[in-house]
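B., you asked whether I could sanity-check this one before it goes into the benchmark set. Here's the sequence:
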Amino acid sequence: MSGQSHEGIIWKTGVTRRVRTPYRPDRLPHAQSPGAGQWPSIDPAVRFDEHVLACVLSRALEEINAGEATATQATGLSRADLRDVLTDRFRHLPISAFALEEATDVEPEMEEQLLRDLLLAQARPGDPASARFAKLIARRAMRNDHLWQDLGLFNRAELSLLFATHFPTLAAGNTKNMKWKKYLYRMLCEAEGLSICTAPSCRQCNDFESCFGSEEDESCLARIRNDIGLN
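And here's what the prediction gave me:
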């Protein structure tokens, strides 16, 4: 199956109905139920988690099909974790698309491990989903785009919701609305007693936009969707 077809799986199955537009809990079927008991009760937080996972898996497939990374390298999850996610949350997706037999579990390098440790320390206690997102975020943060784009999300607001949901204390500390990747690295440096900035204050910094500027851009999944639509 071609790389384009693999990416099309995400867009043409049940996952697509959750990720073609930014996450809107008020658009979930049970949120619009005209009568009690007509729709099954599904936690909106669970649906949002599935939305985020679908976005990350789409980015992973893009990299796998381009020969840029294996499934484990693209996600930061072990083969066992990936298999659990696919069989538990996305049973309609063929596991073969992720070529898990060609992947090996990869230990994070020091920078990624530091980010992972920071996120795990701030994750919701006892929540496996939060721990999984800590690994995903730490790995995708090694990419070069805005963090929300690294994760394949539709906009920065979705990333902010992800942090508020699974890392509430960490999210609450970003009172100045700093770019999330910048904020994470600042937190790392502060934990180590270091400084990544020599400016006396943000207002006096010549590179203010680097930390606080707009992060608006086309999402990676929108680009994939548009490419599929053109072919």
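One thing to flag: Confidence is low (pLDDT under 50) at residues 1-9, 11-23, 25-42, 198-206. Otherwise nothing jumped out at me.
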